[in-house]
Write a structure and sequence with these properties.
single chain; alpha/beta; Arc Repressor Mutant, subunit A; 2 domains; five-stranded mixed β-sheet; three-stranded antiparallel β-sheet; 12 strands
């Protein structure tokens, strides 16, 4: 099968920097991805080209680009998943991709020597960010093996753990794609009736699914939510937030996996503390 998305990770260094500048110096992964898509004028097919499981090639290679730019000192990320330009990054609107790769390879070699690790033939194996995709894929693979009704109950449990009240799985057939409903209360004062659709899916969910779901929820709920083990096309995301229509929230496979991890549902996390002294911070204090 021919590759649709032809940009390599290093082709995305400068579009990523440009996207962050457009976003005012910081942005979420989703915001950066959307900006890069517009900068490169990507087609729907290019955006939706799947790398593996629920991760698109655009998402995967942008993660590599961010990793290299971070190690090169141009961007940084917070625990909340927001990426931002560093002082050096703000002063560097454009980079030579070969220079970036050479510097990161040199840094990786030094770190391995310092830690007495054997040399790596693949610099990408040392990336903590990219290692996340491996556990996400393993988790989603386990989820996809359960039956549709069990997946609906898993979504029910997930929403309950997230604070939803009176979460029920709809037993009726021909319910317009509505698999369940619940109540979310904000600040203990405002309550919103929410209906959800659970799609144990491989590949991308299109805009037609969002439109049909909205048609089913109108007049029956205040908010709509679609959860999938797959991904959403750009058109589906646009349809979910179309002007003049009730907004629908979307949770894709990677976000679903993150929530399961955060709530420790079927996931056990072992934390290892590593303390690194930033000597340059004190030198520049």
């Amino acid at each position: 099968m021919s590759e649709i998305f032809k940009y390599k990770y290093d082709d995305l260094f400068n579009p990523t920097l440009q996207a962050l500048n457009i976003l005012g110096g910081s942005g979420s992964v989703r915001e950066i991805e959307e900006q890069v898509s517009e900068i490169l004028k990507l087609s729907e097919d290019e955006i939706n080209d799947i790398h593996r499981e629920s991760t698109t090639k655009l998402t995967y290679r942008l993660a590599w680009a961010r990793n290299y730019l971070k190690r090169y000192g141009l961007i940084e990320n917070s625990s909340k998943g927001v990426w931002a330009l560093t002082g050096k990054g703000k002063a560097t609107p454009f980079v030579d991709k070969q220079q970036v790769k050479k510097a990161v390879v040199k840094l990786d070699k030094k770190e391995r020597q310092d830690n007495n690790k054997p040399p790596s033939t693949d610099i990408e194996n040392s990336s903590e960010e990219l290692l996340e995709f491996s556990w996400q894929e393993e988790l989603l693979d386990s989820v996809k093996k359960i039956t549709p009704d069990k997946f609906e109950r898993l979504c029910q449990r997930l929403l309950r753990e997230l604070g939803f009240l009176n979460v029920e799985v709809t037993q009726r057939s021909n319910d317009g794609g509505i698999d369940g409903q619940g109540l979310i209360r904000l600040g203990g004062v405002l309550s919103f009736h929410v209906v959800f659709q659970a799609k144990r899916y491989q590949g991308s969910v299109g805009s037609n699914v969002v439109r049909d779901f909205r048609g089913a929820m109108i007049g029956r709920a205040d908010k709509g939510l679609i959860l999938t083990t797959g991904s959403f096309t750009r058109e589906a995301k646009k349809e979910a937030n179309r002007d003049g229509a009730p907004p629908i929230d979307l949770i894709d496979g990677n976000e679903f996996a993150e929530k399961l991890k955060e709530l420790r549902l079927g996931v056990e996390v072992e934390l290892v503390e590593k303390v690194k002294i930033k000597k340059e911070w004190f030198a520049n204090f």
